Amino acid sequence: MAKVTESDLKRLEGVIMNRFDQLEEGQRVLETRLNSFEKAKTIIKEDIDPIVIGQKKLQTDIKNFETEQTTFKQEIKEAINKLILEKTELQGDSKTIDVKLDGVSDRLKIIEKAIIKIPDLAEKVGELKYWRQIVIIISTATISGFVGWLIGAGNLNP
Predict the structure, then answer these.
(1) CA proximity to 96, closest of 23, 16, 20
(2) pTM summary value
(3) 44: phi > 0 → left, psi -120 to 50 → alpha, else beta; which?
(4) How many CB atoms neighbour CB 98 within 10 A?
(5) What does 7-67 look like in DSSP terms, one character per residue?
(6) What number of CA atoms fall less than 13 Å from residue 5's CA on the CB side?
(7) In angstroms, rounded to a whole number, what is the distance separating the alpha carbons of residues 106 and 100?
(8) Hey, which of 3, 14, 78, 82 has its CA 20 to 30 A from 121?
(9) Which DSSP string do the residues of 59-80 spell out, in sequence order?
């Protein structure tokens, strides 16, 4: 019989928190790259002085700036795509968890129904007068218990 334990929930929480940490790390990397881009932009702006540098230097610096901007845009697109992919994976993980929890809930309902029947069975055993009835009830209970165990465990491995 599969049970959801607190350690399973903690482990699940750890997996979710790990995903969020990875997203935050990706955001930190983007912020670092943005800061380095802004620093490079500041340096380029300081270097571009048409009176001091001249027209050729200005054109070269503009070309360099455009190249860095294209690279930066490409990196941002890749990072956004990665974030979208990770978000999709998290949503898929969430749906999988919901499905598993629904399965556990269904199993618990089956077990609850079986537990509710125990007092009725005990009362019927108390009313038995013949040994043959006792043997039939015990064998039926054993078979029912085995079938219930198979349903609860989902396989033959204990």
Answers:
(1) 16
(2) 0.32
(3) alpha
(4) 10
(5) HHHHHHHHHHHHHHHHHHHHHHHHHHHHHHHHHHHHHHHHH--TTTT-HHHHHHHHHHHHH
(6) 5
(7) 10
(8) 3
(9) HHHHHHHHHHHHHHHHHHHHHH
Distant-in-sequence, close-in-space partners of 93: CB < 8 Å, separation ≥ 6: 15, 16, 19
Mean pLDDT by 10 residues, the chain (158 residues): 76 86 89 88 71 70 85 86 84 80 81 76 65 80 81 61
Specify the DSSP class assigned to residue 97: H
How many residues in the chain? Answer: 158
Q: Which two tokens stand for residue 49?
A: 């002085």
Residue 34 exposure: Cα atoms within 13 Å on the Cβ side: 8
